[in-house]
Design brief:
heterodimer, A: 12 helices, globular, B: 326 residues, alpha/beta, Rossmann fold, seven-stranded mixed beta sheet
């Protein structure tokens, strides 16, 4: 395996840090009562996955995301300020406050949307891959889903369909080990989630998602496989969400010791160490990156907080697309 | 005009739209080489090939999800669910994904997606293959629901549905596939969202859709001959959005309303039609409106049982006579 280069590692670190700081900001704003509705599902601890996979995607490749989707959205190219505005229910958000945390999408960057239903995005991603194959483009579709989604019927239907039709879809299982409070070992008797892909004749691998460099190289190989072979591939990243299912979850179902063990393996901190030691990056250069991210976060908070709420008189907009006269008549 | 069956008219619409627009494709179980469980797509595979007549595993959620993914990325899929009774398997994809994505994304996307399916009783297919579940879809914002009764309507409405920028649930009736009717030689597009008065009358308004249009027209003939009553038969054609103008204009003329449908009576299409009419034009009514519908009972298998509760011309005639005090 080629070692990650300094340039690649720097870019990867920047994206992971942007995700981490965005999620920490959401957590603080939620606790301060600034984010309405359901507590957001935070991605802290899992940053290496989205940042690595999306590193190798083109702007016109598609992703379909999950209820824990802020990381995917940022990594695919969304702006932090419009994301935060959406999560705060503001008119300037990506979905003008109609979607919220679980329904952010940015079609311009190929992000077909997060999803509030576990496993529901998988067939949609397969459809995007079908579309790419139908239109004979080089695009691929990436479907992010959690460990628990692999127990849904949609997973099995969609993965089987993708395999039987040879569709260019990369199935990215983020095995953070918990479906809300339930450990995956209680609900999934196979050793690895990726073993399920084996059952459908799909190439697959399981990797340590806390190891940013390994995640990065695995993602590179998988994206290239899907694009060139025009077949599905599945990666299972073993990872861990440092916080609960949602920001309000007290995590009574797991021990502090377990959490501490995983937090020691923080992909962001370890990549930072690697940048400074193995990759010989100057501390000043790292700090400059970090300052830039802080500025972006501060500007996003200012933008989101200063943005107007949607107008109630617009609530019925966009239920249907307008019918084009002459097209249907 | 050509004479063709309802099945042939639907096939003609598919053929015309597949030929017209390369973005259109058909996806579903046995729709390709086999020609469809109801033989609707027969011959299209030979004409358009496996790339556009896509056979799938028996995986209704994956069919609808894949169609949605394709619709969001530049294509215009026509997905087939073999029996409407199977939509339970993929209902999440329909009502949480297909129907809502445009709204949730504040109009970032359009969803040009048709879900073709067929329902209805009358063939002894029993409880899980005979239902009329149209009101499920009408309940959900973001879906258009279309149910043609004649070959001409089926062809014209399906062409509209395929050209729509919104998801359309297009529900055929299994008993109608062999029914023949006139279809114009030239292309005809029938707009969605419009009801049609299929028979003029001054005494009572009968609303109906799908196969029950035929039964209602038959009942109207009987009532005209035997009772001297002239029924106005309003074919709703599109159930969502409902064409209130045509409906209300008819009631204003007749001052009486009976709704006819094959779906379960509870919370059905008749309930919606009556609620809208009585809440908006209450003063027009000379008598309380009445529903003729399938009772709240699963569709039984044995023909004698099925016929005993399935709405038909006689049950409609009886309801009119009761309403008119005859």
């Amino acid at each position: 395996m080629n070692r990650i280069s300094g340039r690649e590692a720097k870019k990867l670190y920047l994206m992971m840090l942007r995700i981490r700081r965005f999620e920490e900001t959401c957590y603080e704003l939620y606790l301060a009562g600034k984010i309405p509705g359901m507590s957001p599902h935070l991605y802290i601890g899992e940053e290496a996955v989205a940042a690595s996979v999306c590193f190798f995607l083109n702007r016109d490749d598609y992703i379909v995301s999950t209820h824990r989707g802020h990381g995917h959205c940022l990594a695919k190219g969304a702006r932090m300020d419009r994301m935060l505005a959406e999560i705060m229910g503001k008119e300037t958000g990506y979905c003008r406050g109609r979607g919220g945390s679980m329904h952010i999408a940015d079609i311009a960057t190929g992000n077909l949307g997060a999803n509030g239903i576990v496993g529901a995005g998988i067939p949609i991603a397969v459809g995007a891959a079908l579309s790419a194959a139908y239109r004979k483009t080089e695009q691929i579709a990436v479907c992010f889903f959690g460990d628990a989604a692999s127990n849904q019927g949609t997973f099995h239907e969609a993965v089987n369909m993708a395999a039987s039709m040879n569709l260019p879809v990369l199935l990215v299982c983020e095995n953070n080990q918990y479906g809300l409070s339930t450990h995956i070992k209680k609900t999934c008797p196979t050793c690895n989630i990726s073993d399920k892909a084996h059952g459908y004749g799909i190439e697959h691998t399981t990797v340590d998602g806390m190891d940013a460099e390994l995640s990065f190289r695995t993602a590179e190989k998988a994206v290239s496989y899907v694009r060139n072979q025009k077949r599905p591939y599945m990666i299972e990243f073993i990872t861990y969400r440092f916080l609960g299912h949602g920001a309000s979850d007290n995590r009574s179902y797991r021990t502090k010791e377990e959490e501490e063990e995983w937090i020691k393996r923080c992909p962001l901190k370890n990549l930072r160490k690697k940048l400074l030691s193995d990759l010989k990056m100057e501390i000043k250069e790292v700090e400059t990156l970090e300052e830039e991210v802080e500025k972006e976060v501060a500007a996003s908070i200012k933008f989101a907080q200063g943005s107007p709420y949607p107008k109630p008189e617009d609530v019925l907009e966009n239920i249907f697309a307008p019918v084009i006269e002459g097209e249907t008549e | 005009m050509s004479i063709m069956t309802y099945r042939e008219a639907i096939r003609l619409a598919l053929m015309e739209e597949l030929a017209r627009d390369e973005r259109v494709f058909v996806i579903g179980e046995d729709v390709g080489a086999f020609g469809g469980a109801m033989a609707v797509t027969k011959g299209l595979y030979e004409q358009f090939g496996p790339g556009r007549m896509i056979d799938t595993p028996i995986s209704e959620s994956a069919i609808i999800g894949a169609a949605l993914g394709a619709a969001l990325t530049g294509l215009r899929p026509v997905a087939e669910i073999m029996f409407i009774d199977f939509v339970g398997v993929c209902m999440d994809q329909i009502f949480n994904q297909v129907a809502k994505i445009r709204y949730m994304l504040a109009g970032q996307v359009e969803v040009p997606l048709v879900i073709r399916t067929q329902g209805g009783a009358g063939k002894g297919y029993a409880s899980q293959h005979s239902q009329s579940l149209e009101s499920w879809f009408c309940h959900i914002p973001g879906l258009k629901v279309v149910m043609p009764a004649t070959p001409r309507d089926a062809r014209g409405l399906l062409k509209s549905a395929i050209r729509e920028q919104n998801p359309v649930i297009f529900i055929e009736h299994k008993v109608l596939y062999n029914e023949k009717g006139e279809v114009p030689e030239e292309e005809e597009i029938i707009p969605l969202g419009k009801a049609q008065v299929k028979r003029q009358g001054k005494d009572i308004t009968l609303t109906c859709h799908s196969r029950q249009v035929l039964n209602t027209l038959h009942a109207a003939d009987i009532l005209s001959k035997e009772d001297g009553l002239e029924c106005e038969v309003v074919d709703l054609m599109t159930l969502a959005p409902l064409d209130e103008d045509t409906l209300f204009n008819s009631i204003k003329k007749t001052n009486h309303l009976i709704t006819v449908e094959e779906g379960y009576e509870n919370n059905g299409i008749g309930a919606e039609v009556i609620a809208r009419a009585t809440s908006k034009i209450f003063d027009c009514f000379d008598a309380p409106p009445v529903r003729v519908a399938f009772p709240n009972c699963p569709v039984p298998f044995s023909k004698v049982l099925e016929n005993s509760i399935l709405p038909d011309a006689k049950k409609i005639v009886d309801a009119v006579r009761r309403l008119k005090g005859k």
